[in-house]
């Protein structure tokens, strides 16, 4: 009995699930997305109730002696903790300069960073891939102009271009700032974005657009001369249908791989902008802005303030990079066996 041949996608799924690197990346990303979804539901963040100035810049509770934890419990102004001594893991990441629980703030930073990084990449994929597809398929003057624009954007150091775009967009009199204010006032977005963070996301999306544009253009140029494309032309398939039904699906592999890698780089870029004060503004618990505030206290011995947001960024970038490596290997037809 003949076995039904497996498709490219079923083979890719099988190889991904058998890849140690890919499974590690999937596990880390699934863990982070679970935190991002569950945390706001289980532990809503109230900036006014999360403060305990009597216990500001306290080290992680598991590093404190029993006497120190008891003393911190006596000084606590949090009514929920007045009659309950600190447990050994009550505040496992310590507190910040306002006595806020860093563990809670790091957890609430996950939906912000993941949403911003994912949105930035989605925007870059939509606009960059469309530019690359049109450029590679139609060629001529369209290809020349589009390639020049992408080369110009790629000529600038990405973080410097993001800084310049964000600084311009954060001018309160600019159209972009007023537009971001309108967008971030939507109920579904106001818990994640503020205008500077939204502008930072758009700036990161802009610096990612030429990357996807070049990848899509290269994929189209390699697919355009295949025999099935010539066959579609011979039977009279329209150019738009050929582009969307035949060329685009066969150009998705490198775009999908780059998407996972770009989510990691976008999260890092947004965190860098937040570190420079151009991204999320306090008291929003974005990891980059937390690092920016923590740098003032690292030199005075409060190392935990910067350590745990930094670990969160590192773990997120590691997860998406591992997933991207696993996808790249899984979608490579040369590895089929």
UniProtKB/TrEMBL annotation:
The keyword Ligase does not apply. Keywords: Cell membrane, Membrane, Transmembrane, Transmembrane helix, Transport. Its main location: membrane. The keyword Transport applies. Residues 110-324 form the ABC transmembrane type-1 domain. It is found in: Cell membrane. InterPro entries: BP-dependent_transpt_permease (IPR050366), MetI-like (IPR000515), MetI-like_sf (IPR035906), OppC_N (IPR025966). It is a multi-pass membrane protein. Pfam families: BPD_transp_1 (PF00528), OppC_N (PF12911). One of its GO terms (biological process) is transmembrane transport. GO terms for cellular component: plasma membrane. PROSITE patterns: ABC_TM1. The chain crosses the membrane at residues 21-42, 119-141, 148-168, 197-216, 247-280, 303-324. SUPFAM superfamilies: MetI-like. Belongs to the binding-protein-dependent transport system permease family. This is ABC transmembrane type-1 domain-containing protein. It comes from Herpetosiphon geysericola.
């Amino acid at each position: 009995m003949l076995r039904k041949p497996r498709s490219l996608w079923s083979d890719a799924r099988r190889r991904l699930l058998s890849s140690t690197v890919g499974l590690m990346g999937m596990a880390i990303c699934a863990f982070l997305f679970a935190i991002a979804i569950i945390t706001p539901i289980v532990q809503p963040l109230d900036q006014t109730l999360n403060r305990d100035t009597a216990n500001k810049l306290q080290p992680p509770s598991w590093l404190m002696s029993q006497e120190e934890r008891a003393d911190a419990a006596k000084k606590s102004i949090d009514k929920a903790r007045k009659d309950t001594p600190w447990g050994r893991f009550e505040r496992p990441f310590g507190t910040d300069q306002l006595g806020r629980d860093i563990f809670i703030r790091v957890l609430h930073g996950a939906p912000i960073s993941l949403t911003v990084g994912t949105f930035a990449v989605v925007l870059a994929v939509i606009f960059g891939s469309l530019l690359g597809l049109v450029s590679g398929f139609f060629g001529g003057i369209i290809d020349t102009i589009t390639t020049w624009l992408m080369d110009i954007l790629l000529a600038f150091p990405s973080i410097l271009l993001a800084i310049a775009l964000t600084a311009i967009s954060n001018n309160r009199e600019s159209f972009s700032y007023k537009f971001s204010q309108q967008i971030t006032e939507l109920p579904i977005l106001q818990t994640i974005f503020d205008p500077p963070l939204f502008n930072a996301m758009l700036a990161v999306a802009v610096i990612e657009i030429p990357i996807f544009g070049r990848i899509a253009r290269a994929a189209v140029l390699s697919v355009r001369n295949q025999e099935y494309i010539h066959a579609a032309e011979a039977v009279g398939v329209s150019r738009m249908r050929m582009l969307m039904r035949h060329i685009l699906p066969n150009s998705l592999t490198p775009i999908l791989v780059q998407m996972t890698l770009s989510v990691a780089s976008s999260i890092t870029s947004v965190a860098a902008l937040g570190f420079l004060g151009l991204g999320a503004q306090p008291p929003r618990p974005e990891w980059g802005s937390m690092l920016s505030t923590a740098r003032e206290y690292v030199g005075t011995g409060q190392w935990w303030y910067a350590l745990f947001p930094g670990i969160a960024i590192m773990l997120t970038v590691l997860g998406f990079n591992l997933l991207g490596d696993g996808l790249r290997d899984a979608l490579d037809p040369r590895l089929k066996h």
